[in-house]
Amino acid sequence: MPARSDTTLNRRALLTGTASGAALLPLAAVAQNEPPRPPPPDPRQKANVALDINGQHYALALDARTTLLDTLRLHVGLTGSKKGCDHGQCGACTVLIDGKTALSCLTLAVMVRGPVTTIEGLAKPDGTLHPMQQAFIDQDAFQCGYCTPGQILSAVACVQSGHAASPDSIREFMSGNLCRCAAYPHIVAAIEQAEPAMGA
Amino acid sequence: MYPFVYRRADAVPDAIRAAAGGNLPPTSAPAQFIAGGTQLLDLMKLGSWTPQTLVDINGLAPSLSAIEAGPKGLRLGALVRMSQLETHPTVIRDYPVIAQTMALAASQQLRNMATLAGNILQRTRCQYFREADWPACNKRAPGSGCAAIEGLNRKHAVLGVNDNCIASYPGDFAQALVALGAEIDTAGEAGARTIPFEQLHTGPEDPARETVLLPGELITAIRVPAGPWTRRSTYLKVRDRQSYAFGLATAAVALDLRDGVVQEARIGLGGVAYKPWRAHAAEAALRGKKLDESTAADAARAAFAGAKTHGENAFKVELGQRTLVRALLQAGRMEV
Q1: Residue A22 is nearest to which of B47, B54, B142, comparing CB atoms?
Q2: Does the structure show a pLDDT above 60 at A15?
Q3: What confidence tens digit (pLDDT) does each residue in B161-217 have?
Q4: To 5 degrees, how large is the angle CA B223–CA B226–CA B229?
Q5: How far apart are the first and last CA of chain A?
Q6: Chain B residues bordering chain A (beta-carbon distance below 8 Å)
Q7: What is the value of pTM for the model shown?
Q8: Same structural domain for residues A141 and A98?
Q9: What is the pLDDT of residue B35?
Q10: Which bin fits B171, alpha (ψ -120 to 50), beta or left (φ > 0)?
Q11: B53-56 and B5-8: which strand pairing?
């Protein structure tokens, strides 16, 4: 546990540094062309955030800028959802909101109104894996595993929304989840395996 | 990310009041509406868009989320999500070009999140615009110049550009809307108004402006008129990979054919133009002609007659023409 907590702190510090560094540039770039802007709102004024995550209710007070992804990972302790690009391009942060896939990195926590399902919410309380999780293991549908939580949530939605009828349909539905290890053929196989099991 | 004040609006007048103010270009307004957030938050993280207030309009969903199809056409609520329109049976049957622009756009996650109105207002993918550390971008920092003209510009526009800006408009839906003569309904401080879709986006004379919308003016609906051409319609999107990529050259085509002769043609071109681009000259070239490879090629040449290239994007003239020819012939072969 101590090692894990150190990692979290380091990563948080790194992110904070990146954000403040990036914020300086546009101000300099636009200053000559726009009227001076009023001082920014004080980010210490917290926004009330109410979330339903995997059937559990959370009431949090957060900086309004906090994404759902950072909320899950840093404030709720659910680190299964992964931060890849943080710009909605890779799909590693995919969660289900109202049963539909969404990018938690491009969602402000304060805006979320529907129930959220993360990778931690798929297995049964007794530890029995969801058929899609089992299928990813059976089909060897990952190597490094970093994209896997997002892949599995997209895969669950793929079956539930009726898009698992053919490999082409699966590939199209899943195209927003990148896999740097290129496990794509195995991911398609896993979805084909889980589809009948999920329907049953 | 620059700090902002977050507000929720649960009725249209609240939203307008919260975001209204001034006569700035709409993208420079201090308050911005947020619904899907897929573009706004991306650009805010990059530091290239720094609104002071975000007005969350998802609470307006009950009144702005309907898809209505009638004899006069479609009325699409501003907060309809892209994935809802993509799967709507009447839209797929009667306006296939619209359903296809949805299905071929972005990723499933983004389509679940993004709204129709937000999609229309999509901003360019030009890297010099998106990433605030590039010094020259007239769209992001007016007067600073255009780094793309002599820079990386393979994906940039060849139609409707000038020396201020050669960014291409990235969207797909807008090409169907401009082709079909859509209109948008807005609500604002000065009341409601209707804007022909073709007049919504502004040109590169003032790259920072982008649209004729006023700060606090909210798109409430998109209306697409019915016509004898909407069923014979298709969207062809040519891109670097088969899914989840922006179009290099795209064509939205709708045809009214009788005995193989073009009564009316509607054409929108994407990936190649500064803004949603209706190819009037190509439409005129086809009217009254029998549709075949030769007349389609004539139309395509007319569409790109005014093209201006900048090195890496020179290939887009021929690619754009071939894309349009293929789309026209595909639409011609449709059984309707």
Answers
A1: B47
A2: no
A3: 999 999 999 999 999 999 999 999 999 999 999 999 999 999 999 999 999 999 999
A4: 125
A5: 39
A6: 1-6, 28, 30, 34, 37-38, 41-42, 45-48, 50, 52, 54, 56, 58, 83, 106-110, 112-113, 132-133, 135, 140-144, 243-244
A7: 0.92
A8: no
A9: 98
A10: beta
A11: parallel
List CB contacts (< 8 A) between B50 and chain A: 23, 26-27, 30
Residue A153 lies in a domain: yes
Task: Please check whether residues A105 and A152 belong to one and the same domain.
Answer: no
Q: Which two tokens stand for residue A147?
A: 């994209």
Partner residue facing B141 (CB), from A33, A37, A175: A33
For residues A94 and A150, state if they share a domain.
Answer: no
CA nearest to A158 within chain B: B108
Distance in angstroms (rounded) separating the CA atoms of residues B265 and B278 = 11
pLDDT for the residue B20:
87
Residues whose CB is less than 8 angstroms from the CB of residue A5 and which lie 6 or more positions away in sequence, other chains included = none
Triad A9, A10, A16: Cα angle to 5°? 90
How many domains, chain A? 2
Lookup: tokens for B271: 């990936």
Measure CB to CB from residue B5 to each of A41, A67, A154 and give the nearest one: A41
Nearest CA in chain A to B43: A87
The verdict on A96 and A142 lying in the same domain is no
In DSSP terms, A102 is beta-bridged to A95
Cα B255 to Cα B303: distance, rounded to the nearest angstrom: 16
- What domains sit in chain B, N to C, each tagged with a CATH number? 5-59 (3.30.43.10), 61-120+171-225 (3.30.465.10), 233-333 (3.30.390.50)
Domain containing A106 equals: 43-120
B250, B321 contact by CB (below 8 A): no
Residues of chain B with C-beta less than 8 angstroms from the C-beta of A113 = 58
Structure letter (DSSP) for residue A111: G
